[in-house]
Design brief:
heterodimer; A: 116 residues; Arc Repressor Mutant, subunit A; two-stranded antiparallel ribbon; 5 helices; 2 strands; B: 872 residues; alpha+beta; 4 domains; 13-stranded mixed β-sheet; seven-stranded mixed β-sheet; 28 helices; 15% strand; globular
């Protein structure tokens, strides 16, 4: 998976899949995104991201047992793979490393309010 | 589930749609999610809203990952690629006929685009204002004592403020006071000054009614100050070299003193589709303006309150107006017009700008559709004719297993390619015409500006559909050939019906062409009639120089101009004959509305008016300068109830409105009636007064020889008298043409479209003749072998075509005669439709047919019969 970068939205979906484990599927991932971040995404957009993440190998999925809800249609439940976990960690490390490199001086000017 | 009504279920159609496009393996989980989501939304939202959201999410699945890969799994693309490849090969193979097809079709499409983009402009006038449906113009038609109604766009300045005061429905009422031809000398400094005409004076709430986008400045306050002035972007650049000039000063140079105006706003240049245009907008600065009810020099516009319409106000207008008139004899009629109707439907006297005409819009739309139809029929005709050549191709394809479906799509692909190419060429053709015919249209137009683009795409879709429809018949026709017969190259049994269809098409084409030729010649005849009619004076040799107010010593200028060899006479006046003239009412015992000019004694001689009785003004007779010493035209004399016996006698001529005192006066001369207005209305009364300097115009009788030299001399003389004012002049002839600008424009566009239609019909007939001859080659050869002469054979083939054209004329000529007769009735002075127009129409269509078919059949008749018979 050389050169495959996690997109911002993809990363969010991936993390939420982790949060919702073991019950992560399309619709509740979307609901969770909205409640955690206030962002509204189309169901199709979430499905599209899940599809992509799965083809990159960051997720696996299987169809759950049929229930009475949803007109008897099965859900597809998602789970993070080890590659997915590595990708998330790599992304976090990159971020932390960048944070650590910002010197305190960079924030200095922000402490003062607007001046005349 | 069972107690779930349909209302509470997700829309079925949406599910079907998803099933149609979505990949099989995804459907279950996706539909599951969506249905669960729908249930969830239903808890908080109304059913309709939930359904709407449901649709939204379904559409959001139109993403690459979810869409079936049908295109790659089937032969779909391959077949279509092939269709287009074959289409292209066929076009290349039949270069001649493809070229003809494309050329005629693109001309048709091009003129269709051209006309409709132009007409869209005509229909878009004044629609750029906010709340445009609430803006109306109020006008007053003048009615004289004889009950003759004179439509007039102008109104007195007291109207607007009183409308606002008396009617609660009126939110704003404003006046517009244009420059009426006067030239204002404006400058940003002493070295940078220009004479300007496009000046409008108005009320401070101008921008409450009209929306012209302001780039700099605040429209709400821009006209608050009496010395403020708002200018357009191009004017700002002209005077200051930059756009943001708010706060700069403009100097208005007066004859005695100058005044300073402060620029408070810069507007985008006034759009071409505004019924009035201006470069400067300043405040009305005339004291006691609100009291004048007799000064018809202003335009009144009102904006109604939201949710009110003119319907409630209109019936009250007349009573309102009359309540302000002291004169009981005042019969003037007041009414309103929607601002969007002004350009196409108003057409009153003293419009702010020459109007368009809704009838021309109708005429042109019909013609544009005609031309498109002609060119599509042509395409249809040519393709059907072409099909005879393609029996074998179809036969071979069918034998190799192509089904009817495939063949139809193949032929439609061909049509599509040709139509697309024609569309591209037609677009270029239309845009090119716009670039070169701006004068003809009266404004500059482009396909690629603003809202025209989306409209253009609309037109493209229409033409594509029409083009494909035209291709539909040949496609079905071709694909229905019996392969066994087709491979042998035998005409199928439907050959007869195809011939009938082609004849029908040709008759329609030539009917339309004949119709257009007839109309064009008639319009042209009428214009020539206007030009050639004796106007009652010498219109061709009188040069009118405007802007005379900028000359201090007008008599000296006149004397100097008379020294120029080419100038034989010079007369001063305060108006132009053939322009729009001022009017006033006088007469005893009954008043008559009379057009008038104040002139000096040399004016009559310069214009070459012919005296019926009496004499000209003279400087040596004191009586001539009195109030009511006048020269009338014949109509004026008659309408005032006078006879030639009264000329030269002191008679009662007018009555003072206030005191009732009878005013005596004298008609010293009567001139023969002359045309001073457009030919649509009968000649009206006209009256000349002895005027005093300063005048506004000097009329020069010039000789046609050495005209350029004469004009150069006039320019030189002018420059030495007129304090830097530019010399502006025109022949009276030209101002007459301007009175008939609309008709001139119509005739030019007609000529343009008619040539196109005739050309397309010509091409169609040429192709048709070639095909006919090809299929009759053997017949011709056998006839020749048996002893037929070349002329006999030529006649044999041409004859049929000429009958078609005659039949087309028989259909078209009566219809066009009827329509043009109606059109001519709109003119008070019109020519009759002479038999020569009939002959010309019939002759020209026959000639086109004879030349095309004749030349082809002549060639066929000359060819060697042995050669043709050897084949097979």
């Amino acid at each position: 998976m050389k050169g495959t970068q996690l997109g911002e939205f993809e990363e969010l979906v991936l993390l939420i899949v982790g949060v919702l484990y073991p019950e992560a599927y399309g619709l509740n991932i979307r609901t969770e995104i909205t409640s955690q971040t206030g962002r509204k995404a189309a169901i199709g957009a979430v499905h599209s991201a899940l599809n992509r993440l799965e083809s990159k190998g960051y997720l696996t999925s299987e169809l759950a047992e049929a229930t009475h809800a949803r007109g008897g249609r099965r859900k597809r439940l998602f789970q993070i793979t080890s590659t997915g976990k590595q990708a998330l960690e790599k992304s976090r490390e990159q971020r932390n490393s960048l944070w650590n490199q910002i010197s305190d001086l960079a924030w200095k000017d922000l402490n003062y309010g607007p001046s005349f | 589930m069972d107690h779930h009504s349909n209302e509470r279920m997700p829309p079925k159609l949406a599910d079907q749609f998803l099933r149609w496009f979505c990949r099989e393996e995804l459907i279950e989980e996706v539909l599951g999610d969506l249905h669960e989501y729908f249930e969830y939304e239903l808890q908080d939202e109304a059913a309709w809203k939930a359904k709407l959201l449901y649709w939204y999410h379904i559409l959001q699945f139109l993403r690459p990952f979810a869409i079936k890969k049908r295109l790659q799994n089937t032969h779909f693309i391959m077949i279509y690629q092939n269709s287009f490849k074959f289409a292209w090969r066929n076009i290349i193979k039949h270069k001649g006929s493809s070229l003809m097809n494309i050329l005629t079709l693109s001309l048709g499409i091009g003129s269709f685009i051209f006309i409709f983009i132009y007409l869209k402009g005509e229909l878009s006038y004044d629609r750029h204002h906010d709340d445009v449906e609430r803006i109306h113009r109020v006008v007053i038609d003048l009615v004289n004592d004889n009950g003759v109604r004179l439509p007039d766009a102008t109104t007195p300045p007291a109207l607007a403020p009183n409308l606002k005061k008396d009617f609660a429905e009126v939110e704003h009422a404003i006046r517009i006071f244009p420059g009426w031809g006067s030239k204002f000398l404006l400058g940003s400094s002493d070295d940078k000054k220009f004479y300007e005409e496009e000046v409008i004076r108005t009320d401070s709430n101008f921008f409450e009614v009209f929306s012209f986008p302001m780039i700099y400045g605040d429209p709400n306050t821009a006209l608050n100050d009496r010395n403020s002035i708002v200018i357009t972007k191009k004017t700002a650049l002209k005077y200051f070299g930059k756009e943001d000039v708010v706060g700069e000063n403009l100097i208005l140079f007066g004859s005695s003193r100058n005044s300073n105006l402060r620029v408070t706003g810069v507007l985008e240049d006034i759009p071409a589709n505004s019924h009035f245009k201006f470069d400067f907008l300043s405040r009305l600065n005339i004291p006691n303006l609100d009291q004048y009810w007799g000064w018809y020099n202003f335009y009144t516009y009102i904006k109604l309150l939201p949710n009110t319409t003119m319907a409630s106000l209109e019936p009250k207008l007349q009573a309102f107006y009359e309540s302000y008139q002291d004169d009981e004899e005042d019969n003037n009629i007041i009414y309103s017009q929607a601002i969007t109707d002004i350009h196409l439907k108003s057409n009153l006297k003293w419009e702010l700008e020459t109007n368009g005409d809704i009838n021309n819009v109708y005429i042109l739309s019909v013609l544009a559709i005609f031309v498109l139809i002609i060119s599509c029929l042509n395409y249809l005709n040519l393709s059907v004719a072409e099909s005879l050549k393609r029996f074998k191709e179809v036969g071979v394809r069918k034998t190799l297993g192509a089904n009817k479906h495939y063949l139809i799509s193949q032929f439609l692909a061909e049509t599509l390619v040709i139509t697309l190419i024609a569309l591209a060429i037609g677009t270029l053709f239309a845009e090119f015409s716009f670039k070169n015919l701006g004068d003809l249209l009266g404004r500059s137009v482009s396909i690629f500006e603003g809202s025209n683009i989306s409209f253009y795409f609309g037109i493209c879709i229409v033409t594509l559909i029409v083009g494909l429809l035209a291709g539909l018949y040949p496609a079905f026709h071709l694909s229905s050939f019996n392969p066994a017969l087709a491979v042998k190259g035998l005409a199928d049994s439907s050959g007869k019906s195809v011939l009938g269809l082609r004849r029908g098409l040709m008759i329609i084409q030539f009917s339309i062409s004949a119709f257009m030729i007839f109309c064009t010649i008639s319009v042209y005849h009428q214009l020539m009639h206007i030009k050639n009619t004796d106007k009652g004076f010498d219109a061709e040799q009188v040069l009118v120089v405007e802007n005379l107010r900028s000359v201090q010593n007008q008599e000296a200028l006149k004397a100097e101009l008379l020294n120029i060899p080419g100038v034989s006479n010079a007369g001063l006046s305060d108006g132009v004959v053939g322009g729009q003239n001022w009017t006033f009412t006088f007469g005893y015992p009954e008043g008559v509305l009379v057009n008038y000019l104040a002139i000096d004694p040399e004016f009559i001689e310069t214009m070459d008016f012919e005296f019926v009785k009496g004499r000209n003004f003279s400087r040596n007779r004191p009586i001539d300068t009195a109030d009511y010493t006048i020269i009338l035209n014949e109509t004026g004399l008659k309408d005032l109830g006078l006879t030639l016996e009264d000329v030269g006698k002191s008679i009662p001529l007018d009555q003072n409105d206030d005191t009732g005192e009878i005013i005596r006066g004298m008609v010293i001369g009567v001139v023969k009636d002359f045309h001073f207005a457009d030919f649509k209305r009968p000649i009206k009364p006209f009256c000349f007064f002895f005027g005093e300097a300063p005048f506004d115009f000097i009329n020069l009788q010039v000789s046609a020889a050495n005209l350029n030299q004469t004009i150069r001399s006039i320019e030189k003389t002018w420059a030495s008298f007129a304090n830097e004012a530019p010399l502006e002049y025109a022949f009276i002839d030209e101002s007459f043409s301007e009175l008939h600008e609309k008709e001139t424009r119509l005739s030019k566009i007609l000529l343009f479209l008619t040539s196109l239609a005739l050309f397309i019909a010509f091409m169609g007939m040429l192709a048709s003749a070639r095909i006919t001859i090809k299929s009759r080659k053997k017949e011709i050869s056998i006839r020749k072998v048996l002893g037929a002469s070349v002329s006999g054979v030529t006649y044999l083939i041409t004859r049929n075509f000429l009958w078609l054209v005659l039949l087309a004329n028989a259909i078209a000529v009566p219809i066009s005669f009827f329509i043009m007769k109606k059109w001519l009735q709109g003119f008070a002075y019109h020519t009759s439709i002479s038999y020569s127009i009939f002959l010309l129409t019939i002759f020209s269509t026959l000639l086109v047919a004879a030349i095309t078919v004749g030349s082809q059949s002549f060639r066929a008749a000359l060819s060697n019969p042995v050669k043709n018979l050897k084949q097979e």
